[in-house]
């Protein structure tokens, strides 16, 4: 453990601090170059944009730039550690945007007093970017923040911990339930956590066919049920009319455990109580609700996923956010709507059923083969097919649902 700690610190510190930098896309060597890039030449695109704001997409980096914006109130599963402490995660998201979808991305950490202050700050800078990826903002404030910003901005605003997580988790769950021989509309779900990720995931599962009455959601006070009087409007959506009160009450005979809460909150004894052939996605980062070794030691009929890169079945929003934004930016979608999100779910789920190319295996030297099954319910983040497959599906859904300003698919999807 201490070895990975030091390696991670060294990775972030050397050879230069941090993980991202700005690079130039135009020559800036001669005085003529400077006359074009800066004064006097720069005045020309200024005038063009002043006369028509859409020209910002033509003459600036707006159309390929996404801001990753956080206030550090729910940094992974580490909690509310403030905006500055969230910066490594936000730089990390920017790295992933560039690495996987060639989207330029900048991290912005906002110190604010009220929720309205945060919304006003983001709204004020939004026109700079082609899209805004909100990250690690805790519930329930995240719901109002996203709703307001979508209303006030004319670029896609997407809270990754809600929708990126929901899209990937739903894709993995559809496949895992199929492998386990279970139907989503029969399955009983236990969701530990009732925050940004949990509410969005369970809402997405319902859109994919899960029955709300088969969902037991828990927060720090236990099961969310109809007789509780301390529920916010978002938790109330999942209030179950039940006498069950504890994790042990609801985990008995459950088909699915979804963890979006914190480390080590699910025990081996809990897992032993689940129905035959269960699905356990323990998605808290960096440490899951139960370690896969422990879960596998208890029973051999389960499918296990975590949010981490170092175990099979990484259930993590990295499989979505670079690609959904690629698709949205490419057709200049004004929003990321439900049609685009569902298109991403099925594009990701379907890719896991395709034969895996050698170059993907080469990126995972500890794995000798990968094929659709209990240890491979989702594609690997390094799979180069994610970019065309997910972006194409998302762009097409944006066009079909009428939110795209460009109504032809990019030719680079035709690979
Ligand atoms: N793998 C992935 O792709 C992703 C994983 N996650 C993980 O999900 C977790 C939650 O993130 P997010 O939704 O953004 O955060 P939020 O702060 O919005 O929500 C956290 C939720 O977890 C609940 N919780 C915390 N501790 C416990 C506990 N001991 N018992 C029961 N419930 C508990 C909280 O309960 P209460 O409401 O009572 O405070 C709250 O409902 C994090 O660990 C994060 O790493 C998040 C996004 C993506
Ligand atoms: C993966 C991620 O976004 C999280 O754990 O918050
Ligand atoms: Mg996050």
From TrEMBL:
The residues covered by the Malic enzyme NAD-binding domain are 162-399
Which residues are in the Malic enzyme N-terminal domain? 17-150
Identify the Gene3D superfamilies for this entry.
Malic enzyme, N-terminal domain, NAD(P)-binding Rossmann-like Domain
Q: Which cofactors are required for activity? A: Mn(2+); Mg(2+)
Which SMART domains does the UniProt entry name for this protein? malic, Malic_M
Keyword list, A-Z: Metal-binding, Oxidoreductase
Xref: CDD domains: NAD_bind_2_malic_enz (cd05311)
Give yes or no: UniProt keyword Metal-binding: yes
Pfam families per the UniProt record, alphabetical: malic, Malic_M
Query: Mind telling me which InterPro entries this protein's record contains?
Result: Aminoacid_DH-like_N_sf, Malate_Decarboxylase, Malic_enzyme_CS, Malic_N_dom, Malic_N_dom_sf, Malic_NAD-bd, Malic_NAD-bd_bact_type, Malic_OxRdtase
Q: State the similarity comment.
A: Belongs to the malic enzymes family.
Question: What name does UniProt use for this protein?
Answer: Malate dehydrogenase
């Amino acid at each position: 453990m201490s070895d990975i700690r030091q390696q991670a610190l060294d990775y972030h510190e050397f050879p230069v601090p941090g993980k991202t930098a700005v690079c130039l896309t135009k020559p800036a060597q001669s005085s003529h170059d400077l006359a074009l890039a800066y004064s006097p030449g720069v005045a020309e695109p200024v005038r063009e944009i002043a006369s028509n704001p859409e020209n910002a997409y033509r003459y600036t980096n707006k159309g390929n730039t996404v801001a990753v914006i956080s206030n550090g109130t729910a940094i992974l599963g580490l909690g509310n550690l403030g905006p500055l402490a969230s910066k490594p995660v936000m730089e990390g998201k920017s790295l992933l945007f560039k690495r996987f979808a060639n989207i330029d991305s900048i991290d912005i950490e906002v110190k604010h007093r009220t929720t309205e202050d945060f919304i006003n700050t983001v709204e004020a800078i939004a026109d700079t970017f082609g899209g805004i990826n909100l990250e690690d903002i805790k519930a329930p404030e995240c719901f109002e923040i996203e709703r307001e910003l979508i209303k006030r901005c004319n670029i896609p605003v997407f809270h990754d911990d809600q929708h990126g997580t929901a899209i990937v988790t739903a894709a993995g769950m559809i496949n895992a339930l199929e492998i386990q021989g279970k139907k989503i509309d029969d399955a009983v779900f236990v969701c530990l956590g009732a925050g940004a990720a949990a509410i969005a995931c369970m809402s997405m599962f319902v859109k994919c066919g899960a029955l709300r009455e088969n969902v037991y959601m828990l927060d720090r006070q236990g099961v969310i049920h109809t007789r509780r009087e301390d529920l916010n409007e978002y938790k109330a959506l999942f209030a179950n009319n039940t006498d069950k009160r504890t994790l042990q009450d609801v985990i008995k005979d459950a088909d699915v455990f979804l963890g979006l809460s914190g480390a080590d909150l699910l025990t081996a004894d809990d897992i032993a109580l689940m129905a035959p052939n269960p699905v356990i996605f323990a998605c808290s980062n960096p440490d899951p609700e139960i370690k896969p070794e422990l879960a596998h030691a208890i029973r051999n009929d389960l499918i296990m996923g975590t949010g981490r890169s170092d175990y099979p079945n990484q259930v993590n929003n990295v499989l979505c956010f670079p690609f959904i934004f690629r698709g949205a930016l490419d057709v200049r979608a004004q929003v990321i709507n439900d049609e685009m999100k569902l298109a991403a779910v099925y594009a990701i789920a379907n890719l896991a059923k395709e034969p895996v190319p050698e170059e993907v295996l080469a990126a995972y030297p500890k794995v000798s083969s990968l094929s659709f099954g209990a240890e491979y319910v989702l594609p690997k983040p390094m799979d180069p097919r994610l970019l065309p497959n997910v972006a194409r599906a998302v762009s097409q859904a944006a066009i079909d649902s009428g939110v795209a300003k460009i109504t032809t698919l990019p030719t680079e999807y035709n690979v």
